[in-house]
Protein backbone atom coordinates (compact mmCIF):
# COMPACT_ATOMS: atom_id res chain seq x y z
CA UNK A 1 0.00 0.00 0.00
CA UNK A 2 1.32 3.45 -0.89
CA UNK A 3 2.07 6.16 1.65
CA UNK A 4 -0.84 8.22 0.32
CA UNK A 5 -3.26 5.31 0.72
CA UNK A 6 -2.03 4.62 4.26
CA UNK A 7 -2.51 8.26 5.22
CA UNK A 8 -6.01 8.33 3.71
CA UNK A 9 -7.05 5.06 5.35
CA UNK A 10 -5.76 6.35 8.70
CA UNK A 11 -8.22 9.25 8.52
CA UNK A 12 -5.55 11.94 8.86
CA UNK A 13 -6.71 15.55 8.44
CA UNK A 14 -5.18 18.91 9.28
CA UNK A 15 -4.84 18.81 13.05
CA UNK A 16 -4.32 22.56 13.28
CA UNK A 17 -8.05 23.11 12.92
CA UNK A 18 -8.79 23.31 9.20
CA UNK A 19 -9.42 19.59 8.78
CA UNK A 20 -8.30 19.32 5.15
CA UNK A 21 -7.59 15.67 4.21
CA UNK A 22 -3.83 15.22 4.37
CA UNK A 23 -3.56 12.60 1.63
CA UNK A 24 -4.43 15.29 -0.94
CA UNK A 25 -1.44 17.39 0.10
CA UNK A 26 0.82 14.34 -0.20
CA UNK A 27 -0.32 13.94 -3.79
CA UNK A 28 1.22 17.28 -4.80
CA UNK A 29 4.71 18.23 -6.00
CA UNK A 30 6.15 21.06 -3.87
CA UNK A 31 9.79 22.03 -3.60
CA UNK A 32 9.33 23.11 0.04
CA UNK A 33 7.54 21.44 2.95
CA UNK A 34 6.83 23.34 6.18
CA UNK A 35 6.04 21.93 9.61
CA UNK A 36 3.72 24.50 11.20
CA UNK A 37 4.50 24.55 14.93
CA UNK A 38 3.76 28.27 15.36
CA UNK A 39 0.77 27.75 17.68
CA UNK A 40 -0.06 31.43 17.42
CA UNK A 41 -3.41 31.40 19.27
CA UNK A 42 -2.91 32.82 22.79
CA UNK A 43 -2.77 30.50 25.84
CA UNK A 44 -2.35 27.21 23.94
CA UNK A 45 0.26 24.55 24.67
CA UNK A 46 -0.98 21.76 22.38
CA UNK A 47 1.87 21.79 19.86
CA UNK A 48 4.34 22.49 22.65
CA UNK A 49 3.63 19.11 24.26
CA UNK A 50 3.33 17.32 20.92
CA UNK A 51 6.89 18.46 20.18
CA UNK A 52 8.12 17.67 23.67
CA UNK A 53 6.69 14.13 23.60
CA UNK A 54 6.72 13.15 19.91
CA UNK A 55 9.58 15.00 18.22
CA UNK A 56 10.87 11.73 16.74
CA UNK A 57 7.54 11.08 15.03
CA UNK A 58 7.25 14.68 13.81
CA UNK A 59 10.62 14.59 12.06
CA UNK A 60 9.89 11.12 10.68
CA UNK A 61 6.55 12.36 9.38
CA UNK A 62 8.14 15.41 7.79
CA UNK A 63 10.76 13.21 6.11
CA UNK A 64 8.04 10.84 4.83
CA UNK A 65 6.03 13.79 3.50
CA UNK A 66 9.07 15.26 1.76
CA UNK A 67 10.07 11.93 0.22
CA UNK A 68 6.50 11.26 -0.95
CA UNK A 69 6.06 14.67 -2.58
CA UNK A 70 9.63 15.16 -3.76
CA UNK A 71 10.14 18.32 -1.71
CA UNK A 72 13.86 19.14 -1.41
CA UNK A 73 13.62 21.69 1.40
CA UNK A 74 11.97 21.24 4.79
CA UNK A 75 11.42 23.80 7.53
CA UNK A 76 10.39 23.36 11.15
CA UNK A 77 8.68 26.70 11.84
CA UNK A 78 8.34 27.53 15.53
CA UNK A 79 8.25 30.68 17.63
CA UNK A 80 11.42 31.96 19.27
CA UNK A 81 9.61 31.98 22.62
CA UNK A 82 9.73 28.14 22.51
CA UNK A 83 13.54 28.28 22.49
CA UNK A 84 13.90 25.63 25.18
CA UNK A 85 12.56 23.14 22.63
CA UNK A 86 15.16 24.09 20.02
CA UNK A 87 17.92 21.69 21.23
CA UNK A 88 15.39 18.84 21.22
CA UNK A 89 14.35 19.62 17.65
CA UNK A 90 17.86 20.15 16.32
CA UNK A 91 19.20 17.01 18.00
CA UNK A 92 16.42 14.92 16.44
CA UNK A 93 17.01 16.43 13.00
CA UNK A 94 20.69 15.53 13.37
CA UNK A 95 19.94 12.05 14.74
CA UNK A 96 17.69 11.25 11.78
CA UNK A 97 20.28 12.73 9.39
CA UNK A 98 17.64 15.07 7.96
CA UNK A 99 20.11 17.62 6.62
CA UNK A 100 17.48 19.17 4.32
CA UNK A 101 15.28 20.16 7.28
CA UNK A 102 16.04 23.49 8.95
CA UNK A 103 14.71 25.07 12.12
CA UNK A 104 13.00 28.38 11.29
CA UNK A 105 12.42 30.82 14.14
CA UNK A 106 9.27 32.94 14.09
CA UNK A 107 8.59 36.06 16.08
CA UNK A 108 5.99 35.98 18.85
CA UNK A 109 3.21 37.64 16.91
CA UNK A 110 -0.31 36.86 15.76
CA UNK A 111 -1.26 35.26 13.36
CA UNK A 112 2.14 33.61 12.81
CA UNK A 113 0.47 30.26 12.13
CA UNK A 114 -1.78 31.54 9.35
CA UNK A 115 -0.77 29.37 6.41
CA UNK A 116 -0.26 32.21 3.96
CA UNK A 117 1.60 34.42 6.43
CA UNK A 118 3.80 31.45 7.34
CA UNK A 119 4.65 30.72 3.71
CA UNK A 120 5.70 34.34 3.18
CA UNK A 121 7.78 34.48 6.38
CA UNK A 122 9.62 31.24 5.64
CA UNK A 123 10.06 31.47 1.86
CA UNK A 124 9.33 35.06 0.85
CA UNK A 125 6.68 33.76 -1.57
CA UNK A 126 3.16 35.21 -1.61
CA UNK A 127 0.30 32.75 -2.09
CA UNK A 128 -1.97 34.24 -4.80
CA UNK A 129 -5.28 35.58 -3.57
CA UNK A 130 -7.18 32.90 -5.48
CA UNK A 131 -4.75 30.17 -4.50
CA UNK A 132 -3.23 27.88 -1.88
CA UNK A 133 0.41 27.28 -0.85
CA UNK A 134 1.04 24.61 -3.48
CA UNK A 135 0.54 27.34 -6.11
CA UNK A 136 3.92 28.71 -5.01
CA UNK A 137 5.52 25.28 -4.55
CA UNK A 138 4.88 24.89 -0.81
CA UNK A 139 2.93 22.47 1.39
CA UNK A 140 2.22 23.15 5.08
CA UNK A 141 1.23 20.63 7.75
CA UNK A 142 0.71 20.99 11.48
CA UNK A 143 3.25 19.30 13.79
CA UNK A 144 0.67 16.83 15.12
CA UNK A 145 -0.44 15.96 11.59
CA UNK A 146 3.15 15.02 10.72
CA UNK A 147 3.42 12.82 13.81
CA UNK A 148 0.19 11.11 12.76
CA UNK A 149 1.64 10.51 9.29
CA UNK A 150 4.61 8.69 10.83
CA UNK A 151 2.35 6.55 13.02
CA UNK A 152 0.12 5.65 10.09
CA UNK A 153 2.92 4.77 7.69
CA UNK A 154 5.24 2.96 10.10
CA UNK A 155 2.77 1.45 12.59
CA UNK A 156 -0.60 1.42 10.79
CA UNK A 157 -2.10 3.52 13.59
CA UNK A 158 -5.18 5.55 12.54
CA UNK A 159 -6.32 8.82 14.10
CA UNK A 160 -8.70 8.19 17.01
CA UNK A 161 -7.17 10.51 19.60
CA UNK A 162 -5.29 13.82 19.73
CA UNK A 163 -3.57 16.35 22.02
CA UNK A 164 -5.85 19.04 23.48
CA UNK A 165 -5.21 22.14 25.63
CA UNK A 166 -7.90 22.91 28.21
CA UNK A 167 -7.02 26.38 29.49
CA UNK A 168 -8.25 29.84 30.44
CA UNK A 169 -10.43 30.68 33.41
CA UNK A 170 -10.17 27.22 35.00
CA UNK A 171 -8.85 25.86 38.29
CA UNK A 172 -6.96 23.01 36.62
CA UNK A 173 -5.50 23.98 33.22
CA UNK A 174 -4.10 20.92 31.46
CA UNK A 175 -3.03 19.31 28.20
CA UNK A 176 -4.03 15.71 27.53
CA UNK A 177 -4.28 13.06 24.85
CA UNK A 178 -8.03 12.66 24.38
CA UNK A 179 -10.08 10.16 22.40
CA UNK A 180 -12.19 11.47 19.52
CA UNK A 181 -15.85 11.51 20.52
CA UNK A 182 -15.21 12.40 24.16
CA UNK A 183 -17.94 14.80 25.38
CA UNK A 184 -16.62 18.21 26.38
CA UNK A 185 -18.44 17.87 29.72
CA UNK A 186 -15.92 15.19 30.77
CA UNK A 187 -13.02 17.58 30.15
CA UNK A 188 -14.94 20.36 31.87
CA UNK A 189 -15.32 18.28 35.02
CA UNK A 190 -11.55 17.86 35.24
CA UNK A 191 -10.71 21.49 34.40
CA UNK A 192 -13.24 23.04 36.81
CA UNK A 193 -14.08 26.32 35.01
CA UNK A 194 -14.70 29.40 37.13
CA UNK A 195 -18.14 31.00 37.36
CA UNK A 196 -19.59 32.99 34.47
CA UNK A 197 -17.31 31.52 31.83
CA UNK A 198 -18.00 30.65 28.21
CA UNK A 199 -16.52 27.63 26.40
CA UNK A 200 -14.65 28.28 23.13
CA UNK A 201 -13.40 25.43 20.96
CA UNK A 202 -10.20 26.09 19.01
CA UNK A 203 -8.75 29.31 20.39
CA UNK A 204 -9.43 32.79 21.71
CA UNK A 205 -9.28 34.46 18.28
CA UNK A 206 -10.63 31.98 15.74
CA UNK A 207 -12.49 29.52 17.94
CA UNK A 208 -16.26 29.10 18.18
CA UNK A 209 -18.52 29.08 21.23
CA UNK A 210 -19.58 25.55 22.15
CA UNK A 211 -21.63 23.73 24.80
CA UNK A 212 -20.69 20.95 27.25
CA UNK A 213 -22.76 18.55 25.12
CA UNK A 214 -20.46 19.00 22.10
CA UNK A 215 -17.71 16.42 21.51
CA UNK A 216 -14.05 16.33 20.65
CA UNK A 217 -13.11 15.79 16.99
CA UNK A 218 -9.87 15.35 15.07
CA UNK A 219 -9.62 19.14 14.70
CA UNK A 220 -10.24 20.10 18.34
CA UNK A 221 -6.90 21.55 19.40
CA UNK A 222 -8.12 23.38 22.49
CA UNK A 223 -10.96 24.26 24.81
CA UNK A 224 -10.61 27.78 26.18
CA UNK A 225 -12.77 29.19 28.97
CA UNK A 226 -13.19 32.97 29.14
CA UNK A 227 -15.35 35.23 31.26
CA UNK A 228 -18.68 36.02 29.61
CA UNK A 229 -17.74 39.71 29.54
CA UNK A 230 -14.41 39.18 27.80
CA UNK A 231 -14.22 41.15 24.52
CA UNK A 232 -13.44 37.98 22.55
CA UNK A 233 -16.59 36.36 23.91
CA UNK A 234 -18.70 39.43 23.16
CA UNK A 235 -17.41 39.48 19.58
CA UNK A 236 -18.36 35.83 19.05
CA UNK A 237 -21.76 35.92 20.75
CA UNK A 238 -23.21 39.26 19.59
CA UNK A 239 -26.15 38.93 17.21
CA UNK A 240 -25.52 40.07 13.65
CA UNK A 241 -28.25 42.67 14.09
CA UNK A 242 -26.30 44.22 16.95
CA UNK A 243 -23.07 44.01 14.93
CA UNK A 244 -24.82 45.93 12.15
CA UNK A 245 -26.38 48.55 14.41
CA UNK A 246 -23.14 49.19 16.28
CA UNK A 247 -21.22 49.48 13.01
CA UNK A 248 -23.61 52.05 11.58
CA UNK A 249 -23.41 54.08 14.77
CA UNK A 250 -19.66 53.93 15.41
CA UNK A 251 -17.56 53.13 12.30
CA UNK A 252 -15.59 56.26 11.43
CA UNK A 253 -13.66 54.70 8.51
CA UNK A 254 -10.35 55.16 10.30
CA UNK A 255 -8.93 52.22 8.23
CA UNK A 256 -7.05 50.70 11.20
CA UNK A 257 -8.66 47.34 10.40
CA UNK A 258 -7.20 47.47 6.90
CA UNK A 259 -3.81 48.75 8.02
CA UNK A 260 -3.33 45.70 10.28
CA UNK A 261 -5.07 43.05 8.13
CA UNK A 262 -2.48 40.26 7.49
CA UNK A 263 -3.89 39.37 4.07
CA UNK A 264 -4.08 43.02 2.97
CA UNK A 265 -0.43 43.39 3.94
CA UNK A 266 0.45 40.48 1.65
CA UNK A 267 -0.97 42.49 -1.24
CA UNK A 268 -4.41 40.88 -1.44
CA UNK A 269 -7.45 42.91 -2.54
CA UNK A 270 -9.09 42.95 0.88
CA UNK A 271 -9.88 46.15 2.77
CA UNK A 272 -11.93 45.51 5.93
CA UNK A 273 -12.91 49.18 6.29
CA UNK A 274 -14.57 48.96 2.88
CA UNK A 275 -16.72 45.98 3.84
CA UNK A 276 -17.93 48.07 6.79
CA UNK A 277 -18.79 50.87 4.36
CA UNK A 278 -20.68 48.37 2.20
CA UNK A 279 -22.61 47.21 5.27
CA UNK A 280 -23.32 50.72 6.54
CA UNK A 281 -24.30 52.43 3.31
CA UNK A 282 -25.89 49.63 1.32
CA UNK A 283 -23.32 49.49 -1.46
CA UNK A 284 -23.47 46.70 -4.04
CA UNK A 285 -23.16 43.40 -2.18
CA UNK A 286 -21.97 41.66 -5.37
CA UNK A 287 -19.04 44.04 -5.88
CA UNK A 288 -15.38 43.10 -5.58
CA UNK A 289 -15.48 44.64 -2.09
CA UNK A 290 -18.02 42.08 -0.94
CA UNK A 291 -16.31 39.28 -2.85
CA UNK A 292 -13.20 39.94 -0.77
CA UNK A 293 -15.04 37.91 1.88
CA UNK A 294 -13.40 34.92 0.19
CA UNK A 295 -9.98 36.38 1.01
CA UNK A 296 -10.68 36.82 4.73
CA UNK A 297 -8.96 34.19 6.89
CA UNK A 298 -11.17 35.06 9.91
CA UNK A 299 -8.09 35.68 12.10
CA UNK A 300 -9.93 38.38 14.07
CA UNK A 301 -7.13 40.98 14.06
CA UNK A 302 -9.57 43.58 12.70
CA UNK A 303 -12.23 43.03 15.34
CA UNK A 304 -10.29 42.05 18.45
CA UNK A 305 -7.24 44.27 18.11
CA UNK A 306 -7.37 46.92 15.38
CA UNK A 307 -10.79 48.55 15.75
CA UNK A 308 -10.85 51.20 18.51
CA UNK A 309 -14.60 50.62 18.93
CA UNK A 310 -14.55 46.82 18.91
CA UNK A 311 -16.47 46.55 15.62
CA UNK A 312 -16.25 43.29 13.71
CA UNK A 313 -15.35 43.32 10.00
CA UNK A 314 -14.61 39.61 10.55
CA UNK A 315 -18.28 38.90 11.30
CA UNK A 316 -19.38 41.05 8.36
CA UNK A 317 -17.10 39.17 5.96
CA UNK A 318 -18.48 35.88 7.26
CA UNK A 319 -22.00 37.21 6.65
CA UNK A 320 -21.26 38.24 3.07
CA UNK A 321 -19.49 34.98 2.31
CA UNK A 322 -22.65 33.06 3.17
CA UNK A 323 -24.67 35.27 0.81
CA UNK A 324 -22.33 35.24 -2.16
CA UNK A 325 -22.85 32.69 -4.90
CA UNK A 326 -20.12 33.73 -7.32
CA UNK A 327 -16.39 34.10 -6.81
CA UNK A 328 -14.70 36.16 -9.50
CA UNK A 329 -11.73 37.88 -7.90
CA UNK A 330 -9.12 38.40 -10.63
CA UNK A 331 -5.55 37.22 -10.17
CA UNK A 332 -2.94 39.88 -9.58
CA UNK A 333 0.76 40.39 -9.04
CA UNK A 334 1.23 40.61 -5.30
CA UNK A 335 3.60 42.87 -3.45
CA UNK A 336 3.81 42.70 0.31
CA UNK A 337 3.49 45.95 2.23
CA UNK A 338 7.04 47.23 2.93
CA UNK A 339 5.95 47.74 6.54
CA UNK A 340 4.47 44.25 6.86
CA UNK A 341 6.95 43.24 9.57
CA UNK A 342 6.22 46.32 11.66
CA UNK A 343 2.47 45.73 11.43
CA UNK A 344 2.56 42.27 12.97
CA UNK A 345 0.67 42.04 16.27
CA UNK A 346 2.85 41.07 19.28
CA UNK A 347 1.06 38.26 21.11
CA UNK A 348 1.50 39.85 24.53
CA UNK A 349 -0.07 43.11 23.30
CA UNK A 350 -2.96 41.11 21.91
CA UNK A 351 -3.42 39.28 25.21
CA UNK A 352 -3.27 42.57 27.10
CA UNK A 353 -5.97 44.02 24.82
CA UNK A 354 -8.15 40.97 25.54
CA UNK A 355 -7.43 41.02 29.30
CA UNK A 356 -6.05 37.47 29.34
CA UNK A 357 -2.38 38.02 30.23
CA UNK A 358 -3.01 36.59 33.69
CA UNK A 359 -4.09 33.32 32.07
CA UNK A 360 -0.83 32.83 30.18
CA UNK A 361 0.62 29.95 32.21
CA UNK A 362 2.07 26.58 31.23
CA UNK A 363 -0.58 23.92 31.91
CA UNK A 364 0.19 20.46 33.26
CA UNK A 365 0.47 17.55 30.82
CA UNK A 366 -1.59 14.67 32.24
CA UNK A 367 -1.09 12.03 29.54
CA UNK A 368 -4.06 10.06 28.23
CA UNK A 369 -7.36 11.39 29.47
CA UNK A 370 -9.43 8.76 31.28
CA UNK A 371 -13.07 8.52 30.24
CA UNK A 372 -15.37 5.49 30.44
CA UNK A 373 -18.70 6.81 29.14
CA UNK A 374 -20.26 6.78 25.68
CA UNK A 375 -18.32 8.23 22.75
CA UNK A 376 -20.31 10.27 20.24
CA UNK A 377 -18.26 10.18 17.04
CA UNK A 378 -19.18 12.55 14.17
CA UNK A 379 -18.82 11.00 10.72
CA UNK A 380 -17.68 14.28 9.19
CA UNK A 381 -14.61 15.72 10.90
CA UNK A 382 -12.97 17.09 7.78
CA UNK A 383 -13.41 19.40 4.81
CA UNK A 384 -15.17 17.49 2.03
CA UNK A 385 -17.80 14.80 1.64
CA UNK A 386 -19.18 13.02 4.72
CA UNK A 387 -18.06 9.49 5.43
CA UNK A 388 -20.60 6.65 5.41
CA UNK A 389 -21.14 4.38 8.44
CA UNK A 390 -20.12 0.72 8.03
CA UNK A 391 -21.28 -0.49 11.47
CA UNK A 392 -24.72 -1.27 12.89
CA UNK A 393 -26.24 -1.11 16.35
CA UNK A 394 -25.04 -4.00 18.48
CA UNK A 395 -21.77 -4.49 16.58
CA UNK A 396 -18.62 -5.04 18.62
CA UNK A 397 -15.75 -2.81 17.51
CA UNK A 398 -12.07 -2.65 18.37
CA UNK A 399 -9.90 0.37 19.03
CA UNK A 400 -8.69 1.75 15.71
CA UNK A 401 -11.26 -0.16 13.64
CA UNK A 402 -12.91 1.84 10.81
CA UNK A 403 -16.54 2.69 11.55
CA UNK A 404 -17.11 4.57 8.30
CA UNK A 405 -15.94 4.57 4.68
CA UNK A 406 -15.75 7.05 1.81
CA UNK A 407 -17.39 7.04 -1.58
CA UNK A 408 -14.88 6.38 -4.33
CA UNK A 409 -13.04 9.49 -5.60
CA UNK A 410 -14.69 11.76 -3.00
CA UNK A 411 -12.72 14.22 -0.88
CA UNK A 412 -13.14 12.27 2.33
CA UNK A 413 -11.42 10.20 5.02
CA UNK A 414 -12.82 7.43 7.24
CA UNK A 415 -13.46 7.63 10.98
CA UNK A 416 -12.20 5.04 13.49
CA UNK A 417 -13.36 3.74 16.85
CA UNK A 418 -11.41 5.21 19.79
CA UNK A 419 -12.15 2.21 22.05
CA UNK A 420 -13.06 -1.44 22.27
CA UNK A 421 -16.83 -1.32 22.69
CA UNK A 422 -20.34 -1.87 21.40
CA UNK A 423 -22.12 0.32 18.87
CA UNK A 424 -25.19 1.84 20.57
CA UNK A 425 -26.53 4.08 17.82
CA UNK A 426 -25.84 4.81 14.16
CA UNK A 427 -27.15 7.44 11.78
CA UNK A 428 -25.76 9.47 8.87
CA UNK A 429 -24.24 12.05 11.20
CA UNK A 430 -22.61 10.12 14.04
CA UNK A 431 -21.95 6.77 15.72
CA UNK A 432 -22.27 6.25 19.48
CA UNK A 433 -19.98 3.63 21.00
CA UNK A 434 -20.13 2.44 24.62
CA UNK A 435 -16.73 1.57 26.04
From TrEMBL:
It comes from the Bacteria. InterPro entries: Helical_ferredxn, Ion_transpt_RnfC/RsxC, Nuo51_FMN-bd, Nuo51_FMN-bd_sf, RnfC_N, Single_hybrid_motif. Keywords: 4Fe-4S, Electron transport, Iron, Iron-sulfur, Metal-binding, Repeat, Transport. Residues 7-150 form the NADH-ubiquinone oxidoreductase 51kDa subunit FMN-binding domain. Residues 366-431 form the RnfC Barrel sandwich hybrid domain. GO terms for cellular component: membrane. GO terms for molecular function: 4 iron, 4 sulfur cluster binding; electron transfer activity; metal ion binding. Pfam families: Complex1_51K (PF01512), Fer4_17 (PF13534), RnfC_N (PF13375). This is Propanediol utilization protein. It comes from Thermotomaculum hydrothermale. The gene is pduS.
